[in-house]
C-alpha cells in the first residue's frame, strides 16, 4: 500500500478517478494510490454539479471543523431523497445526533456528554483490560489445535461489542445477538448500498428499535450504574429540555452502533498493519509504552473512517472555493492522512511517529464522543495481542469490508 503504486494511464482526470473510487469495490480495496493521484491533479475538486472533494490534510481538517458546513440533516434529506422516511434504517441514522445541526445538536450533545464523561471512561480501564484478556483467551482456545481461526470473529468483532455493551449496560447474553442488526444499520452510510442490503438494514433497524425500547423501559423501572440508566434519568428529569423518547432511542442505538463499528475497523486494520510490518510489531512488544503512538499510527495509516460529508450553508467555502448552499463537501480523510505535506513518508507504517493528529473521529461539534474509549481499548488490545501471540500470522487473504467505515469482515490467522 504505497502512494507511488502505478495507476492506470487512462485515468486522466480527477473526475475519472473519483468515479472509479465510488463505483468500483476493487478501487476501494487499496485507495491510497488513487488518493495520491487525485491530490496531485486537483486537490480541491469541484464537479460539474457543484460537489466538492478535498484530499489535502489542511483542507479536510478545516472543513470538518467549519460551522458553515453542517450535517446531512432531515431538511436536506427531504430535498435530495424525499422517500427517506420509508426506510427505518435511514430514519435511525438521520434522526440521530450524528446528523443534527445546532440548536438540536447542541442540546442533544450536551445531554449525552453528561453521561459519557472522561472520568467514566477512565474508570473502565481495568474492566476493558479484563475483556481484552477474555477475548485473547478465546483465541488461544480456538487456535490450540494449530488450525485456522478467524480473528475477526474471535477478536475484532466481539471485543468492541463487549466493551460498548458493558458501558451502556447491555446484558452480556445479548451482545452477540445484536451484532448483525447493528452492523447492517451502520452499513447504510456506505457507498453503493443496494436494495438487498437496504432491506437487511431496515429489518435490523426494526429489531434494534424493539430491543432497545424494551431495555429503556427496564431501566426506567430498575435503574443501574450504567450510561443507559443515566440517559433515561436525564431524559425524564426535564421533559422540556431533555430528550424525547424517540431521541433517547436514537441516541442509545447510535452510541452502541457507532461505538462498535468504528472500533471494529480500528482493531482489524491495526491487526493487519502489524502482521504486514513485523518490525513494528516487535517494537511494540519490546516497548508497550509506545501503545498510544501505535494507535495514532494505525488511525493514520489505515483509518477506520475515510470520508466525512458535510452540507454547505449560505456563504460556506471549502479548500478556498465557495460552495453553493445545499451542496456537499466530501472530506476524504483517508487521503488527508497520507498527505506528504502533513506527514513525512506517509506510506510508511511507523509507530514511533510523533505529532500525529488524526481526523478519524471527525472534528468540531461532531467530534466522536466515544473516541477516548476506542483509543483506550486499542491501546490495551494491541500490546496484549502481540505479547500473547508473538507468532500470530495470516493463514489466507483477509476480506475487506466498507469504505466510509473501513475494516475487515474476515481475518484468517494461525498461531504457530
From TrEMBL:
<keyword id="KW-0479">Metal-binding</keyword>
<comment type="similarity">
    <text>Belongs to the cytochrome P450 family.</text>
</comment>
<dbReference type="GO" id="GO:0005506">
    <property type="term" value="F:iron ion binding"/>
</dbReference>
<dbReference type="InterPro" id="IPR017972">
    <property type="entry name" value="Cyt_P450_CS"/>
</dbReference>
<keyword id="KW-0560">Oxidoreductase</keyword>
<keyword id="KW-0408">Iron</keyword>
<keyword id="KW-0349">Heme</keyword>
<dbReference type="InterPro" id="IPR002397">
    <property type="entry name" value="Cyt_P450_B"/>
</dbReference>
<dbReference type="Pfam" id="PF00067">
    <property type="entry name" value="p450"/>
</dbReference>
<protein>
    <submittedName>
        <fullName>Cytochrome P450</fullName>
    </submittedName>
</protein>
<dbReference type="GO" id="GO:0016705">
    <property type="term" value="F:oxidoreductase activity, acting on paired donors, with incorporation or reduction of molecular oxygen"/>
</dbReference>
<dbReference type="GO" id="GO:0020037">
    <property type="term" value="F:heme binding"/>
</dbReference>
<keyword id="KW-0503">Monooxygenase</keyword>
<dbReference type="GO" id="GO:0004497">
    <property type="term" value="F:monooxygenase activity"/>
</dbReference>
<dbReference type="InterPro" id="IPR036396">
    <property type="entry name" value="Cyt_P450_sf"/>
</dbReference>
<dbReference type="InterPro" id="IPR001128">
    <property type="entry name" value="Cyt_P450"/>
</dbReference>
Amino acid at each position: 500500500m504505497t502512494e507511488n503504486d502505478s495507476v492506470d494511464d487512462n485515468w486522466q482526470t480527477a473526475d475519472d478517478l473519483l468515479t472509479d473510487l465510488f463505483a468500483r469495490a476493487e478501487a476501494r480495496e487499496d485507495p491510497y494510490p488513487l488518493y495520491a493521484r487525485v491530490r496531485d491533479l486537483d486537490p480541491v475538486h469541484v464537479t460539474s454539479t457543484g460537489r466538492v472533494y478535498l484530499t489535502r490534510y489542511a483542507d479536510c481538517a478545516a472543513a470538518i471543523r467549519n460551522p458553515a458546513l453542517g450535517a446531512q440533516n432531515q431538511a436536506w434529506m427531504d430535498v435530495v431523497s424525499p422517500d427517506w422516511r420509508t426506510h427505518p434504517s435511514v430514519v435511525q441514522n438521520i434522526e440521530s445526533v450524528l446528523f443534527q445541526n445546532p440548536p438540536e445538536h447542541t442540546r442533544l450533545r450536551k445531554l449525552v456528554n453528561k453521561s459519557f464523561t472522561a472520568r467514566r471512561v477512565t474508570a473502565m480501564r481495568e474492566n476493558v483490560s479484563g475483556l481484552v484478556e477474555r477475548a485473547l483467551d478465546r483465541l488461544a482456545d480456538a487456535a490450540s489445535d494449530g488450525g485456522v481461526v478467524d480473528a475477526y470473529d474471535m477478536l475484532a468483532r466481539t471485543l468492541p461489542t463487549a466493551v460498548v455493551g458493558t458501558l451502556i449496560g447491555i446484558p452480556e447474553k445479548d451482545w452477540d445477538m445484536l451484532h448483525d442488526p447493528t452492523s447492517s444499520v451502520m452499513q447504510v452510510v456506505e457507498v453503493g448500498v443496494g436494495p438487498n442490503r437496504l432491506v437487511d438494514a431496515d429489518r435490523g433497524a426494526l429489531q434494534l428499535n424493539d430491543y432497545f425500547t424494551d431495555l429503556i423501559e427496564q431501566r426506567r423501572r430498575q435503574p443501574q450504574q450504567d450510561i443507559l440508566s443515566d440517559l433515561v434519568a436525564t431524559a425524564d428529569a426535564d421533559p422540556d429540555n431533555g430528550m424525547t423518547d424517540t431521541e433517547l432511542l436514537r441516541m442509545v442505538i447510535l452510541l452502541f452502533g457507532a461505538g462498535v463499528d468504528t472500533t471494529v475497523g480500528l482493531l482489524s486494520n491495526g491487526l493487519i498493519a502489524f502482521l504486514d510490518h513485523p518490525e513494528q510489531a516487535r517494537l511494540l512488544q519490546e516497548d508497550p509504552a509506545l501503545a498510544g503512538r501505535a494507535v495514532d499510527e494505525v488511525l493514520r495509516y489505515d483509518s477506520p473512517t475515510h470520508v466525512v460529508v458535510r452540507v454547505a450553508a449560505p456563504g460556506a467555502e471549502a479548500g478556498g472555493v465557495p460552495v453553493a448552499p445545499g451542496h456537499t463537501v466530501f472530506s476524504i480523510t483517508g487521503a488527508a492522512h497520507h498527505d506528504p505535506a502533513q506527514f513525512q513518508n506517509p506510506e510508511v507504517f511507523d509507530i514511533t511517529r510523533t505529532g500525529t493528529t488524526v481526523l478519524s473521529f471527525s472534528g468540531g461539534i461532531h467530534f466522536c464522543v466515544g473516541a477516548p474509549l476506542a483509543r483506550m481499548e486499542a491501546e490495551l488490545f494491541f500490546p496484549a495481542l502481540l505479547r500473547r501471540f508473538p507468532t500470530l500470522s495470516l493463514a489466507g487473504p483477509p476480506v475487506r469490508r466498507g469504505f466510509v467505515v473501513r475494516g475487515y469482515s474476515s481475518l484468517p490467522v494461525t498461531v504457530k
